[in-house]
Amino acid sequence: MTMETHLLRTFVAVARGGSFSRAARDLGYTQSAISQHIAALEHDLGTALLTRRPVAPTRAGERLLEHAGPLLTRLDAARADLARLTAAPTGRVVLGLTPLSLTVEVAAAVHRGTELRVLGREDVLTEVATGSLDLGLVDGMAAPSDPLSLPDVGPLTTTVVAERPLAVAVPVTHPLAGRTARLPELADAGWIDAPDVAIPLERLRKSASTDGFRSRLRYTGTDVRGLLGLVAAGQGLALLPADVLDGVGTLSLSSPRVVHRTELVHGDPGEGAALAAALTGQRPEL
Questions:
Q1: How many structural domains compose the chain?
Q2: pTM of model > 0.90
Q3: Residue 138 shares a structural domain with residue 269
Q4: CATH code where residue 124 lies
Q5: Which residues make Cβ contacts (< 8 Å) with residue 10, sequence separation at least 6?
Q6: CA-wise closest residue to 276 among 101, 83, 109
Q7: Could you tell me if 127 and 96 are in contact, meaning their C-beta atoms sit under 8 angstroms apart?
Q8: Based on CB atoms within 10 Å of each CB, which residue in 99, 182, 231, 273 is the most buried?
Q9: Containing domain of residue 145, as a range?
Q10: Which candidate, 149, 123, 137, 126, places its Cα nearest to that of 75?
Q11: Which domain CATH number covers 69?
Q12: Stretch 108-118: mean pLDDT, rounded?
């Protein structure tokens, strides 16, 4: 059993994209080569990994996908980490941010000439690990002073940047607007699933120890104002930092005690060391 890296990359591309032809375009192979890669991997593992019509992972394929994605990210992270050791200075720093981590304080700390890229949470982590970003800012929900629970994508350093209150965004006419409630009491309300902007619903389920918090619709954008517009129109609720709730009603949480936390993530910051220090309020090392 070898599970060669290029075969795993092909499998992940097909499984996530749901198409052999799309994977061929993305990876620069012919469709015939993609089919051969999948067949070789299935032969090596002794089981079918994909159904063909429609193209979707089998049960074994789903299990392999759980392992293959993080494994390939770690391999790319190792390659990027070694490349940074010998890379010549570029004079440019690339900072990736989640939508809610770009606050006034962060904007004031950014140095002239920095390139900013607004991305989803998982994309920021992956691109920092694989070297596409020098630094990243990610956000999420945590107990006060507790670190964020982040996936292991490589040997990254995390430092707290800020913590601020959370509140539930509701329509201004909502009967609970301006009131206080416990999070589990809202499990049966209609929610908007906006994993790259609001606190993900899966995180709410875990915090409230319930299988509730079902979504009325899914929002895959990174535009906070767009999400607030959906809330204002009555499409569902969303948990966000209290200071961004404009044009909607607010509902405070009495329990659990949670905050919106932003953390800086990086490997060797290199040319981004001064910006990293500015973002975390530390003095850069000389």
A1: 3
A2: no
A3: yes
A4: 3.40.190.10
A5: 23, 27, 29, 34, 37, 38, 41
A6: 109
A7: yes
A8: 231
A9: 94-162+261-280
A10: 126
A11: 1.10.10.10
A12: 91
